[in-house]
Amino acid sequence: MSLLEVHDVTQRFGELAAVKHVSLNVEDGELHAIIGPNGAGKTTFFNMISGFYKPTSGRIVFNGSDVTDLPPHDRVGLGMARTFQITEVFPELSVRDNLRIAVEITQDLRMKLFATRSQAARTDEQVDELLETGGLTANADRHVGELSHGDQRSTEIMMALALKPKLLLLDEPAAGMGSQETYDTAVLIRKLHRTQKLTIVLVEHDMRVIFNLADRITVLTEGEVLEVGTPAEIAASEKVQVAYLGEKREGA
Ligand SMILES: Nc1ncnc2c1ncn2[C@@H]1O[C@H](COP(=O)(O)OP(=O)(O)OP(=O)(O)O)[C@@H](O)[C@H]1O
């Protein structure tokens, strides 16, 4: 059984079919990237996986449960966490406080007036671990809004990780970043994938990130699957070169 099974999903917006009969399997521990030219349907497809859009037809099965009709927060409860193209953090709070909020949500402590001393200690420990893993310890007490774009994205990724997901969905993690920040973000994603054996699905425009990180890649064009394969298979695919990389080269 794959961790994520997408069966023949279609998403219509009125007359337009943004995603047409797309299927995808993501295995436990896999890092699967979704690429494609502008307007290919990547974001729409991603929104169906995370529950922001309900497919017009087709089914989505996560960890053995049919989640097609579940809203995003119920999918989070089953172990799916996502980040957004535009970083979603509380910019006026410190990195530590952002992470604390995420950890407390997971521990279901936000609604309780008092945490016991051992609960508070466990929260502190988890926050420290997340800071360490995300390379954020030195900036722990700074407001997130003051940090570099890359560190803000790391904070957001670590907030998603605080939810202890089985599947992490990353929507263009390198969007709007310079080369060094893109590299740092890719290193963090690789670390989470390799050391924590996290299953990751990511949509990304930056080909360096994709080809360095992905175990397998799905290429979408005009709402349909053009090709699925390893980075080497995708790089060698003539269809992909014409539809996507060819377009990139011309535009470069
Ligand atoms: N909410 C919506 N209502 C109507 N049309 C939409 C909606 N969202 C997306 N579309 C259309 O669906 C198609 C696919 O869009 P989508 O954003 O999924 O592509 P994408 O591959 O993510 O593109 P990009 O790389 O530019 O972000 C486009 O033609 C887009 O205009």
Automatic annotation (TrEMBL):
The keyword DNA repair does not apply. Gene3D superfamilies: P-loop containing nucleotide triphosphate hydrolases. One of its GO terms (molecular function) is ATP binding. Residues 4-247 form the ABC transporter domain. It comes from the Bacteria. Keywords: ATP-binding, Cell membrane, Membrane, Nucleotide-binding, Transport. InterPro entries: AAA+_ATPase, ABC_AA/LPS_Transport, ABC_transporter-like_ATP-bd, BCA_ABC_TP_C, P-loop_NTPase. This is ABC transporter ATP-binding protein. It comes from Castellaniella hirudinis.
